[in-house]
Amino acid sequence: MIDKTIPYVKFQMERSTSQVLPDRQLPEGYQFSFYTPGDERDWQAIETSAGEFDHLSEAETYFQKNFSPYPDELTKRMTFVTDPSGKKIATCTAWWAKEGGP
Which UniProt keyword terms apply here (predicted)? Predict the structure, then answer.
């Protein structure tokens, strides 16, 4: 859950492409998956449950405005964690800063 009493601070993370990424494993039964068409509902539910949005409709509007115009990029930039039952339970998206976007 997002603690909205903490002030928002914009930041950007960068990594040298020459650095080797560490090998990290999820617990047994959990797996990573990339976005596929139809996953927007899962993204909206996860982000709303985490407190990023107050209502699913706000998450839907955000997704449609910021992500839907770039379906090919979504399949490379949006990931999910799926639990042993196949339910998507977490998400992370590597997206552009506004000034560096498509």
Answer: Transferase
Angle at which helix 40-49 crosses helix 56-66, to 10 degrees, equals: 130
Which residues face 93 on adjacent strands? 78
DSSP assigned state of 86: S
Instruction: Give the total residue count for the chain.
Output: 102
Closest among 59, 17, 15 to 40, alpha carbons compared: 59
From first to last of the 102 residues of the chain, give the pLDDT tens digit: 677 788 888 877 787 888 888 888 999 999 999 999 999 999 999 999 999 999 999 999 999 999 999 999 999 999 999 999 999 999 999 987 665 555
Question: Distance (Å, rounded) from C-alpha 82 to C-alpha 29?
Answer: 8
Spatial separation of the C-alpha atoms in residues 30 and 93, rounded to whole Å: 18
The tokens describing 43, both together, are 């993204």
Check: pTM over 0.90? Answer yes or no.
no
